Amino acid sequence: MNYALLLSVFVIAxxxxxxxxxxxxxxxxxLGDSVMQFSTVIGTYLFSMGIGSFLSRYVVKAxxxxxxxIELLVGLVGGFSATILFLAFSHGVAFRPVLYGVVVxxxxxxxLEIPLLLRILKDRIEFRDLVAQVLTLDYIGALAxxxxxxxxxxxxxxxxxxxxxxxxxxxxxxxxxxxxxGQTVGRQGFLRAQCLVTVLVLLGGVASAGWINDYxxxxxxxxxxxxxxxxxxxxxxxxxxxxxxxxxxxxxxQFSSRDEYRYHEALVHPGLAxxxxxxxxxxxxxxxxxxxxxxxxxxxxxxxxxxxxxxxxVKLARGHPVFTELNGQALLSPKVEVITADAFQWxxxxxxxxxxxxxxxxxxxxxxxxxxxxxxxxxRVLRALxxxxxxxxxxxSPLFARESFWTVAETVKSVGLEVNPYHVYVPSFGEWxxxxxxxxxxxxxxxxxxxxxxxxxxxxxxLFEFPRDMAPVPAEANRLNSxxxxxxxxxxxxxxxx
Length: 498
Known about the structure:
four-stranded antiparallel sheet, alpha/beta, Rossmann fold, single chain, Growth Hormone, Chain: A, 16 helices, elongated
């Protein structure tokens, strides 16, 4: 019996951590800035556990019954937590109050569990051994959950179904506790009925998780959702309206098939067309294959190496008909080598040189991405750049995030490269900016590929002209230890989203 009770500790510790991780992950998916969301959610959760532990002193009667009922409440609130948060966001409800309200409630209930269980078991196990065993299993359960969450639960089970499954585990702990402590529990039938009802409700949630996910995402996106999945790194959603296919990562638009050619032609050709001697190209990010598609227009290119963090995006780009039609099966070309890795770490071990480097990464909306816009990162890029090579960097909007854009330019300049900022209008995004950098002065190309849809030799010089509302502003280099760019970016885009 004691082993069964200690197993309960392992289970409830795993459940508690999973609810915490689900809330943090959903907050980072929907609100951005993963460091901020994980930090505030975890801090609030731990504080709430402290409240629960304090309140446990006021539970003085029917400890087993109260423990069972608290397990049921944890299972219900934790089990429905992902659903509540998804639906709150998709229906335009004030998301943060709901988020922290759910975190406080779950954290408080979880904080009650261990103190009550210790008091229940103190007469069955010597206190010294009891504390050691309970805390050991509590920490082991937390470790198991922290490993299972990114490796299994997020990519294979999904957040909504995972929440229901772990809520079900809490309910089962409550149910078997009614048998373990059967002699000390009054009204066993009524208590077990509560457990069974809770189990059935959560089983219904498990069965309905797919529908709930589809419904909430249909509310988030105005167009039809034709694909949605989670990877350990992000939420991937693809929508379609007539001939317009759009890719969203963590709720942020990455491209629209109607005008992505403008973005990718501007990203690739001003630099690569000016390098007739180029043979090797490195693409950091760009796992959708659209930038590689543009690179492969140049027959002299012998090797393209693409480094992208998320293998799920690369898998779609290589095998999903919507993506392969858009990218022309670029990632299946024998010239292309795909590496799934963090660009920041991969560059540190790279020993090759490249004639042209494309940095097609998401905007610096959080610190994990912001590190890819720092002097440290650009120094690593510089080490991989051939003497006559050029780097082209997507650099957010010089109109909507003006200081952010010029901060990127200043950061690149600070590592010893000459910079040539430019911009293009992309209807889906508005004015969008790039920074081209090289060791030597940039010269306009003599010609461009003939079959481009947007860029021409006549249009090209205008990309480097900035009107007054996008002209340079004072900026300082973005450093790894401060990442001021993330803070600037967040404040600028918040102003336009209000």
